[in-house]
Please model this.
Amino acid sequence: MPLVKLNKRFKNKIAELLVKYFEERGMPNYNKKWTIDYLNKGHKKEIKKDEFFVYKENNKIIGVISLINDVSKLAEIRDEVVFPNYNKNYLKKMLLEIINLSKKYKLRKIYALVLKNKMEYYKVLGFKKEGLLKNHFIKGEDLTIMSKFI
Model:
């Protein structure tokens, strides 16, 4: 089998390879020390914040949304759900709050994997389609990759 699990013996060589790759991709701040730590800790090392937020109005919880931002100033919006007894326009309000938070965090870009019934809320706020994930979580349910530069 040509694929083998990375072990201690390969880490220095692989760290050097990744540092060069990061530099070519315009990410010069990832030195060998950072990269070895990355190889030891995995992708958890890249995540700067992983936060859940509730949207409240009149002391009632309307919905939930999360934002996961990483060291490259990108963030993924997840879990944007409004309780069924509330108007879906609350999704737009939650997304606006996330956009404002992303500006505060000085993020470069935010993105989400969006269900078909939520597409218009993202489009109205300036998100653009970047791709499609077919049958992603459930057979027959496609998700659209939507993003917005901040």
Q: What stands out?
A: The mean pLDDT is 94. The helical segments are 11-24, 32-41, 89-104, 119-124. The longest helix spans residues 89-104. DSSP finds four helices and six strands in the chain.
